[in-house]
Structure formats: C-alpha cells, structure tokens
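Fig. S4 source data, part A: sequence.
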Amino acid sequence: MTTHAPPFNDIAQLTDALRTSGYALLRPADVASLAGCSLDDLNTLAASWDHLAPDNYLKDGGNYRRRRHSCFIQDGATLTQTAHRAHWQPIEYNALHGGMHRLFEPVEPSTVALPAWGKLLRALGDACSRVRAAQPWYVEAHQFRIDTLEGIGRPTPEGAHRDGVDFVAVLLVGRSHIKGGETRIFEAAGPDGKRFTMLEPWTLILLDDATVIHESTPIQPDGENGHRDTLVLTWRTGGFQGDTE
C-alpha cells in the first residue's frame, strides 16, 4: 500500500476513474461545480450535523457515533424521498451490524429542503448513471458524527468493507480537534491500495462498491470536543437492501 497526499482526480476524469480504478477523489471546489452550486451553498448543510441523534445500535459498546438516515429514489432528474425505513445490510457486508434492522432518526426535513441537498444528490446520481446505464437509483443518505468524548472514535467499527450497493460516496463535512481518520481503499480482487486523509470540507471520495473495499481509521482527540462529520451516500439498483430479505 502506498502512502501519499490525497490523489485527487480532475473533475473531467470522474467517469474514467470510476471505471478504471474503482474510485474518484474530488476537491471541494469540483464537488460544488459538479452539484451546480457554491461551497457556501454546500456549507448551509453543515449546521444540521449539530442535531444528530445517538446511534443506539453500536455492538462494540461505544457511544461515539451520532447519525441520521433517510432514503430516496432518483429517476432521471426526479429525486423523491421515500417513507422512513430501517437501514439493513447482510452479514456478508457488515459482520458487526449485519442482519439488524436499524431504525435511525430521519434526516431533518429542513435539511432535505435546502437546495444544496437535492443538487448534490442528483449530481452524484447522474455521475453513477454515466458509469452504468441510467436507471432508477435507490439512494440511502447517512449523516455521521464520530466524536472523541470517550477517547477513541471509530468511523468504521466493522473494519474494511463493502456496502452491498453499486456506488458509495463519502463526503467530509468537517473535522475538529482530532487526529487520525485516514481513508483507506483496497482493491477487492488485487493487492493495490491507497491511504490518505481528507482534510477540507466537501472533499469527496466516490467508490464503485464492487471493485474496492474501504475503511476509515479511528480518530483520537487533539483538543476539546473532537469530532469528524461525514455524509455517506449509497446508490443501488433494483431496490433497497432488505426489500426481499
């Protein structure tokens, strides 16, 4: 595994990078450009991370994660929020929390109503459609805050994993008074890997879930109220996980 600064892709390389490498890493300014809005517009979303609810399903006994979760269907230019539903993954993709129907608090309606929310989700869904055929996408949106109030916080307590979807986006919303939180990406069927730390708000890593495995390393406090905020989005064809299980 090589270690270096974030290996950013040019925005024009997004589709080719996903097809050839299984991931693309975009700078914040390019994420805003892709979404057709400004970084200030994206920053209107950030305050909602101060209102996340505790994750009461952590099986490692920790209390370091707060989150909200909502589901959407994107069909062309139309993005529709679905009735609130539990998040479910099979054990094959999440050995720690797989097989559990986890009903989290929904993303606040005031957040979903912000123009930047819909622009961002639709733009990333369109990017997925440029890699695969355009089709209805079943989208799950997860707001996460990992804190260090009890010492160590674990962004991915399940370890290196795939999510059982078609595409995964991880956007850094902010990090404060922490060290760690390194992003690691591994070839699912090969030896190569990358490791880097996303530092700037609205840095984006977009992954082909069938091609790469990913994780984020634990965070440690480096001052008061240390935390790391991310928005994780997934796109899946054919339905949400758990629809037929």
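Fig. S4 source data, part B ends here. The chain has five helices and 14 strands.
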